[in-house]
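The protein record reproduced below.
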Amino acid sequence: MAGELGVGPGVLALLLLWAMALLLVMALGRAGRARVGAVPVLLGAAALTAALLLFPREGESPGPAGAEEVVDTFLIGRFILLAVMSLVFLGCLFLFLIYHLMEPVYAKPLHSR
């Protein structure tokens, strides 16, 4: 069942989720001390994405025996893509922590006479 643009409602929900997360991260990035709040927003979006990907699409009762069985042939590729994206996200988060949040603040020199 394809919706608008030839994609299903799950893809549209994920697109909306990540668009809102990106807008919120950009807004928090422009704020002063609230910049640290961007990390929980990204982690929350990633957790919601994982929950939506693992949420069952059908009921627990099996369908009729004569029904056509739909086989997802790209399942392994999708999980590999998810794993690669997760590793890239963790790497970017690590670099963000090292080069931005843990940046040293040097004291200004005293001018004595």
In short: The helical segments are 9-30, 38-54, 75-101. The chain has a mean pLDDT of 81. Residues 75-101 form the longest helix (27 residues). DSSP finds three helices and no strands in the chain.
